[in-house]
C-alpha cells in the first residue's frame, strides 16, 4: 500500500519520471501470468487466468506456461499474424503452453528480460532497431547505458543479432535463443551454432514451435526424480535391507501406522536401497543420478557437479581432503564454518588463518580484505614457502550477507601463485547463479569469465605491461611488496591453471530437503591432478545408503531454478527491500529498530559506491555497486539493530519472536537479529513480520520510563549492556605446532590428536587462565570452542589463549557454546 501511495503522489504531482522509475522497481513483485499455479496460490479459480485465444482453454492452470520474446521491428498487424501462425501449431498433447511477446528494439529486449521473469526463450530476427521508443525511466536508461554499445550503430544486422545474443547469455544464460533469418541459413549455421540453439527460416513455424517446447522440456527434465516416481509405481517384493521399504514395516503395524498417515504412502513406496530398475548409485553413478548431476552442472555453470546428502559440512570435508595432503598450507578465513576447521584436522594441513575486518559494534565479522590475502601470499613468497601454499578457502557470502568480488580475488591471487586452488563456501549463496547481478560474484561464473579472458590476446598484452612493472627482466627480481599491493594484478594466462570449487547448501536457499547440498567444480587440472583423490574423498565421507528423497529434491530444485529462478531471486531481494523501507518510514519502528545498511557493514575503503542500499535506489545502482565494490551486501539479508530496545539478541529471538509470534530466524548477535528472505518468502509473511515489529515497538513504548522516552541515544527499556569487547583476532599457534615461526601457519592436526593422549590435557576455569596469562604463562587450547553466536571457533587446537579472547567470551551471554564446560572451564594442554 505504501508503494501505491507513493505512485499516486508522483502522478498527482506531475512527477511522471519518478512514477516510471517506481513502477520499474516493483515490476518483478507483481503477479505473473507465466506460472500456472499463481492463481491457485492466490485463491482464484483457474478459469480466471485469461488466454489470448481459445486453444487449450481446458488446460488453463494445469500446463506450465511461459513467454517467448521475439525481437523484430514489425507492425502490429504483422505481429498479430505471426502470433496467430505460431499459436496454430499448438496441439492438445503439448506439455507446455506459451505466449509470444514482440518488441522492436535491442533496448526493449534487454528491458523485457530484466522485468519479465516469465520469458524462457528469445527469437531474434534481423529487422530490429537499437533504441527503444518507450519513455523509459532514469534507472532503466542508466542500466541500458552500461549494456548497449555505441558501436552497434555501425554494425550489419547479423552483427547486432550476435551482440544481442551474447548480451542475453550474460543476463539470462538459462534462456534458449533462436535465430530466424531471411537469408540462406546454411551460410550462417557453422559460425553461429555456439550462440543459438537453432537457426530457422521465417516460414519454419512448426519446427520453431517444436523447438521451443523441446528446449523447455530439457530444463523440465528431472532424471532421478522421475526414476524414483516410476519405481514407486511398480509392484515389487523386497528381500533386501530396509524394512520400511514400500511401507513393509509400517502399514501392517497398529503401533506406528500414524507415520504413514502423517508422511503419506508415496514416501514409503519411494524408500529403497535398490540401485537398479532406473535408479542409480550415488557412489558410482552411470544412470539417472549421473544425468541429474550433469543437468545441475549445466544449470550452475560448472564443469561437473556432485550431489551430497549429508550437508555442506560434508561437502567441505570432501573438497579439502581431495586437495590437501599433510604439510600443505591452506589460507582460510578464521571465522569460516566449523566444518572447515575439522576438515583441516583430518587432512593434516598447515592452517594459515586470515582475519576478516571486524564489526565490533554489532559483534560479528565482515570478510577478509584482498590486501590482507595478497600480503599473506607475498609473505610466504618472501620466506621461500610459497610452493607449500596449496589452496585458499573463503566464505561467499558470509552468514551476515557480505559478498566478495570473487573474480578479482582469484585474479590477483593467481598473479602471485598461478596454481592456487580456491574453495568458495557458498552455503548461503546457492540462489545467486540465477540472477544477472548476483551471478557475477559466484565462483562458477567468475571461473568461466576468467577462463574466457585468458584466451583473449589483449589479456596477454595487458599482462606483459604489468610484468614490466612487477619484475626486473635483467635481474629477474620482484619489485617491492608495496608495488604488488598497490597494483591491480592479473595473472600470466600462459601459466595459470583455474582450479575452483564451490560448495553450496542447496537446502538453505533453494528447494531441497534438509542436508541436500552440491559440490560444483571448475578445475582445469581435475582429470590429471584430482579426479582419483576426489573420488576417494567422496567415498570416505558419503554414506553407502544415501537418502533418495534428498537426491530427488536436489533434482527437482535444479529444475525450478532453471525455469523460474530469476524471478524468484529478484522477488526475494525486492521483498527484503520493502521490509527495510517499512522499518525506515514508520515513526514508531525507527524509534526502536534500524536496518543496517552497506555503510554500516562495509567500511568506506572497500567500496566506491555511495548508496547505503543500492537495490532500493534502482537496478542500475545495484548493478554498479556489485560490479565495482570490493565487498557488497546481499540485499535479501537484513540485519536489524535492536540495541535501543535494551533486549539482547538471544532473548529477542526466542522470547519475543519465536515464542510469542512464531517467527523463526537463523542468527543473532548481542544487539542484532538477522532476517533473511528466500525464494519461498511471501508478501504476507513480510507483512506479518512488520506487524509483529510494530506490536513489539508498542510494547517497548509502553514499558519505557517516561524520563527516557524522548532520548535518542538511550536504551528505552532496562536490559543488558549493548556493547561487547572488541572481537578477538586469531592470536597464533604455539611454537611447537608451527613449522616455521616466521610464518603463521600451524599444524592443527597434531594439536587435535595430541589432546587424545592420556594426561595431556586438563580443564581450567576462566579465572585461573586469566591469572596464568597475567603471570606470563603461555596457555594453549586443546580443543575447539565455538559459541553460537557468532558460530565459528573462537579457539582451535594449538592456539595460544589471550586475555582478549577470555574477555570476549566472558561478555557473551549465549546459551550454546560447544567445547566449553561451564562447570570445568576450558580444555587446555597441561604443559
Kindly list the characteristics that best describe this protein:
32 helices, alpha/beta, five-stranded parallel beta sheet
Explain what you see.
With 831 residues, the chain is an alpha/beta fold. The chain is built from 32 helices and 25 strands. The chain has an 8-stranded mixed beta sheet with strand order 6-15-14-13-11-7-8-21, sandwiched between helices. Strand 4, helix 8 and strand 5 form a beta-alpha-beta unit. The longest helix has 38 residues. About 5% of the residues have low confidence.
How many helices? The count is: 32
The global form is globular
Tell me the strand order in the biggest sheet.
Answer: 6-15-14-13-11-7-8-21
Percent helix: 40-55%
The percentage of residues in β strands lies in 5-15%
The CA-CA distance between the termini, in Å, is 66 Å
Number of strands: 25
Mean pLDDT: 89
Query: How would a crystallographer describe the biggest sheet?
Result: 8 strands, mixed
Class from secondary-structure proportions: alpha/beta
Question: Roughly how many Å is the radius of gyration?
Answer: 29 Å
| Low-confidence spans | 31-58, 706-710, 712-722
Q: What topology does this entry show?
A:
Blueprint (H helix, E strand, L loop, with lengths): L1 H11 L3 H11 L11 H4 L23 E7 L4 H12 L9 E7 L2 H10 L3 E6 L13 H8 L11 H15 L4 E6 L4 H7 L5 E4 L3 H16 L2 H11 L23 H7 L1 H5 L18 H13 L3 E5 L2 H13 L5 E5 L4 H10 L2 E5 L3 E2 L4 E2 L4 H13 L6 E7 L6 E3 L1 H11 L4 E5 L10 H4 L3 H12 L2 H14 L10 H6 L12 E6 L1 H4 L7 E7 L2 H16 L6 H38 L3 H4 L1 E2 L2 H4 L17 H10 L2 E3 L3 E5 L7 H13 L5 E2 L3 E5 L6 H21 L42 E2 H7 L6 E4 L1 H9 L11 E3 L14 H9 L4 E3 L7 E4 L2
Parallel strand pairs: 1-2, 1-3, 3-4, 4-5, 7-8, 7-11, 11-13, 13-14
Antiparallel strand pairs: 6-15, 8-21, 9-10, 12-17, 14-15, 16-18, 18-20, 19-20, 22-25, 23-24
Amino acid at each position: 500500500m505504501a508503494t501505491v501511495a507513493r505512485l499516486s503522489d508522483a502522478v498527482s504531482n506531475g512527477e511522471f519520471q519518478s512514477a516510471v522509475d517506481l513502477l520499474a522497481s516493483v515490476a518483478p513483485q507483481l503477479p505473473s501470468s507465466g506460472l500456472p499455479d499463481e492463481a491457485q496460490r492466490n485463491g482464484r479459480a483457474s478459469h480466471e487466468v485469461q488466454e489470448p485465444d481459445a486453444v487449450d482453454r481446458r488446460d488453463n492452470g494445469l500446463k506450465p506456461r511461459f513467454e517467448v520474446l521475439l525481437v523484430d521491428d514489425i507492425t502490429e498487424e504483422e505481429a498479430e499474424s505471426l502470433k496467430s501462425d505460431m499459436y496454430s501449431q499448438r496441439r492438445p498433447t503439448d506439455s507446455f503452453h506459451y505466449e509470444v511477446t514482440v518488441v522492436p528494439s535491442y533496448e526493449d529486449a534487454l528491458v523485457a528480460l530484466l522485468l519479465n521473469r516469465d520469458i524462457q526463450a528469445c527469437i531474434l530476427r534481423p529487422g530490429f532497431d537499437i533504441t527503444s521508443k518507450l519513455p523509459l525511466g532514469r534507472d532503466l536508461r542508466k542500466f541500458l547505458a552500461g549494456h548497449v554499445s555505441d558501436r552497434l550503430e555501425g554494425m550489419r544486422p547479423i552483427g547486432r543479432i550476435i551482440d544481442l545474443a551474447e548480451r542475453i547469455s550474460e543476463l539470462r544464460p538459462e534462456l534458449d535463443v533462436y535465430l530466424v533469418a531471411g537469408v540462406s541459413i546454411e551460410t550462417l549455421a557453422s559460425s553461429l551454432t555456439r550462440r543459438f540453439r537453432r537457426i530457422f527460416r521465417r516460414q519454419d513455424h512448426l519446427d520453431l514451435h517444436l523447438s521451443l517446447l523441446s528446449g523447455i522440456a530439457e530444463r523440465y527434465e528431472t532424471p532421478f526424480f522421475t526414476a524414483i516416481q516410476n519405481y514407486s509405481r511398480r509392484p515389487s517384493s523386497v528381500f533386501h535391507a530396509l524394512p520400511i521399504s514400500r511401507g513393509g514395516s509400517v502399514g501392517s503395524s497398529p503401533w506406528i501406522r500414524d507415520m504413514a498417515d502423517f508422511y503419506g504412502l508415496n514416501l514409503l513406496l519411494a524408500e529403497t536401497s535398490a540401485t537398479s530398475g532406473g535408479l542409480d548409485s550415488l557412489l558410482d553413478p552411470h544412470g539417472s543420478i549421473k544425468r541429474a548431476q550433469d543437468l545441475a552442472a549445466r544449470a550452475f555453470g560448472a564443469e561437473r557437479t556432485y550431489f551430497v546428502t549429508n550437508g555442506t559440512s560434508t561437502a567441505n570435508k570432501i573438497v579439502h581432503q581431495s586437495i590437501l595432503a599433510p604439510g600443505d598450507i591452506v589460507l582460510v578465513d578464521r571465522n569460516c564454518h566449523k566444518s572447515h576447521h575439522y576438515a583441516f584436522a583430518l587432512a593434516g594441513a598447515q592452517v594459515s588463518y586470515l582475519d576478516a575486518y571486524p564489526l565490533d559494534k554489532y559483534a560479528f565479522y565482515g570478510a577478509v580484505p584482498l590486501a590482507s590475502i595478497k600480503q599473506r601470499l607475498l609473505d610466504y613468497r618472501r620466506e621461500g614457502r610459497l610452493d607449500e601454499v596449496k589452496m585458499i578457502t573463503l566464505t561467499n557470502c558470509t552468514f551476515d550477507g557480505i559478498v566478495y568480488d570473487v573474480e578479482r580475488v582469484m585474479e590477483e591471487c593467481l598473479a602471485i601463485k598461478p596454481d592456487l586452488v580456491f574453495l568458495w563456501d557458498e552455503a548461503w549463496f546457492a540462489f545467486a547463479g540465477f540472477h544477472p547481478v548476483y551471478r557475477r560474484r559466484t565462483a562458477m561464473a567468475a571461473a568461466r569469465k576468467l577462463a574466457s579472458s585468458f584466451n583473449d590476446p589483449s589479456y596477454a598484452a595487458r599482462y606483459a605491461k604489468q610484468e614490466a612493472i612487477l619484475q626486473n627482466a635483467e635481474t629477474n627480481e620482484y619489485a617491492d611488496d608495496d608495488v604488488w599491493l598497490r597494483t591491480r594484478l592479473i595473472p600470466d594466462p600462459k601459466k595459470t591453471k583455474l582450479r575452483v570449487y564451490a560448495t553450496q547448501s542447496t537446502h538453505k536457499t533453494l528447494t531441497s530437503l534438509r542436508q541436500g547440498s552440491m559440490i560444483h567444480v571448475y578445475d582445469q587440472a581435475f582429470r590429471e591432478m584430482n579426479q582419483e583423490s576426489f573420488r576417494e574423498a567422496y567415498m570416505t565421507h558419503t554414506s553407502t545408503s544415501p537418502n533418495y528423497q534428498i537426491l530427488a529434491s536436489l533434482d527437482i530444485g535444479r529444475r525450478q531454478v532453471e525455469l523460474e529462478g530469476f524471478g524468484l531471486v529478484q522477488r526475494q531481494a525486492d521483498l527484503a527491500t520493502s521490509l527495510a523501507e517499512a522499518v525506515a518510514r514508520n515513526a514508531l519502528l525507527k524509534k526502536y529498530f534500524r536496518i543496517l545498511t552497506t555503510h554500516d557493514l562495509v567500511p568506506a575503503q572497500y567500496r566506491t559506491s555511495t548508496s547505503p542500499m543500492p537495490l532500493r535506489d534502482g537496478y542500475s545502482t545495484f548493478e554498479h555497486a556489485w560490479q565495482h565494490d570490493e565487498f557488497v551486501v546481499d540485499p535479501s539479508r537484513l540485519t536489524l539493530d535492536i540495541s535501543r530496545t535494551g533486549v539482547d539478541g538471544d532473548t529477542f529471538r526466542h522470547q519475543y519472536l519465536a515464542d510469542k509470534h512464531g517467527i523463526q530466524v537463523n542468527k543473532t548477535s548481542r544487539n542484532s537479529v538477522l532476517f533473511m528472505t528466500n525464494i519461498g518468502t511471501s508478501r504476507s509473511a513480510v507483512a506479518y513480520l512488520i506487524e509483529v515489529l510494530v506490536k513489539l515497538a508498542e510494547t517497548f513504548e509502553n514499558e519505557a520510563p517516561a524520563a527516557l522516552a524522548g532520548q535518542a541515544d538511550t536504551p528505552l527499556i532496562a536490559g543488558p549492556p549493548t556493547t561487547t569487547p572488541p572481537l578477538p583476532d586469531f592470536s597464533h599457534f604455539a611454537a611447537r605446532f608451527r613449522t616455521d615461526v616466521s610464518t603463521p601457519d600451524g599444524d592443527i592436526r597434531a594439536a587435535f590428536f595430541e589432546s587424545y593422549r592420556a594426561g595431556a590435557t586438563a580443564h581450567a576455569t576462566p579465572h585461573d587462565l586469566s591469572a596464568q596469562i597475567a603471570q606470563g604463562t603461555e596457555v594453549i587450547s586443546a580443543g575447539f570452542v565455538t559459541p553460537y553466536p557468532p558460530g565459528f571457533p573462537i579457539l582451535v587446537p594449538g592456539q595460544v589463549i589471550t586475555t582478549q579472547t577470555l574477555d570476549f567470551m566472558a561478555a557473551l551471554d549465549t546459551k550454546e557454546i560447544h567445547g566449553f564446560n561451564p562447570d570445568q572451564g576450558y580444555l587446555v594442554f597441561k604443559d
